[in-house]
Amino acid sequence: SMPRPKIALIGAGQIGGTLAHLAALKELGDVVLFDIAEGTPQGKALDIAEAGPAEGFDARLKGTNDYADISGADVCIVTAGVPRKPGMSRDDLLGINLKVMKAVGEGIRVNAPDAFVICITNPLDAMVWALREYSGLPHNMVCGMAGVLDSARFRHFLSVEFDVSMKDVTAFVLGGHGDTMVPLVRYSTVAGIPLPDLIEMGWTTQEKLDAIVQRTRDGGAEIVGLLGNGSAFYAPATSAIEMAEAFLKDQKRLLPCAAHVDGAFGLKGMYVGVPTIIGAGGIERVVDIRMAKNEQAMFDKSVEAVKGLVEACRKIDGSLT
Ligand code: A3D
């Protein structure tokens, strides 16, 4: 019989714990929770394992402070680092989290070089780039989660505005995961009906749509402001699990994520949020969609912001090339 897939979660904080719970509930595989904090991953793993009998899932969970335990992982989801506090931008985390990516990248390189790696640590586009550099894994096996979450936020707001099931609302948010992210109104639909048509049909107004686009861009900060300590974790974890599942089950889902783009969108070898196909081959394809002039201008601005963050990483660690 086939062994269960092994899912390694690097970082057992708010998102890491939620990832472990979701992976177990969905029986995606056995879970190893790793953290440098002693006791936290062990405690969360045991607590979730003890939910197994009531929920009825079959999955083994282990908490650890030893990278050797992630050995042979099929998927690694990385949340190690620090989150934002109110008033902070994602970019303020760069210095601290770059050091964390170095340690995590080495841990993955040595122990789980065949894994599909999904980075969540912020600032996302720069951290996934650094993690790929430090781990040395193939580019198609390292990606970042942001677009699925940003699109989910957009879809949620739209489904409330239209009073329709969110199952029928599709949306696309591309670009870097920051204030310059690009919600693509033209590619966002209710069961295939594009948002501009829905304005003409009187379902909403341009003003309301503009406000929803802005709320989507500020979606992370809205939660940070409400929570008061820490950032969003339920929706970020759920979004990363959707990506892990696409890989483990070879679903070939079309999902926006931070992927290595080399050629598509006129870009030369950089990580940024684009539509991708995720299957057993990891990031199997980058989908080079056509953008309108104003969309392209927003995307270009976002790309420049990401390039600036990557430059900042290189300044901190001269070994990054
Ligand atoms: P938090 O609950 O603080 O968990 C982070 C964990 O990382 C803690 O348990 C730390 O002990 C652990 N850690 C720190 N350094 C190391 C290390 N070197 N090795 C292993 N573990 C370490 O944060 P969180 O889970 O709420 O958020 C995690 C990250 O995700 C933050 O950087 C957030 O900014 C980011 N985040 C990204 C998104 C995206 O959409 C991209 C959304 C929400 C949060």
Automatic annotation (TrEMBL):
State which gene encodes it: mdh
HAMAP family xref list:
Malate_dehydrog_3
The UniProt function text for this chain reads: Catalyzes the reversible oxidation of malate to oxaloacetate.
| Entry's EC annotation | 1.1.1.37
Which keywords annotate this record? NAD, Oxidoreductase, Tricarboxylic acid cycle
Binding positions (substrate): 84, 90, 122, 153
Q: Which family does it belong to?
A: Belongs to the LDH/MDH superfamily. MDH type 3 family.
Q: Which domain of life is it from?
A: Bacteria
Q: Which reaction does it catalyse?
A: (S)-malate + NAD(+) = oxaloacetate + NADH + H(+)
- Its recorded name reads Malate dehydrogenase
Spell out the catalytic residues: 177
Q: Which organism is it from?
A: Silicimonas algicola
- Xref: Pfam families: Ldh_1_C (PF02866), Ldh_1_N (PF00056)
**Keyword Oxidoreductase attached:** yes
Q: Which CDD domains match?
A: LDH-like_MDH
Q: Which GO terms describe its molecular function?
A: L-lactate dehydrogenase (NAD+) activity; L-malate dehydrogenase (NAD+) activity
Query: Which GO BP terms sit in this record?
Result: lactate metabolic process; tricarboxylic acid cycle
Q: Which residues form the Lactate/malate dehydrogenase N-terminal domain?
A: 6-144
- Which residues take part in binding NAD(+)? 11-16, 35, 97, 120-122
Q: Which residues form the Lactate/malate dehydrogenase C-terminal domain?
A: 149-307
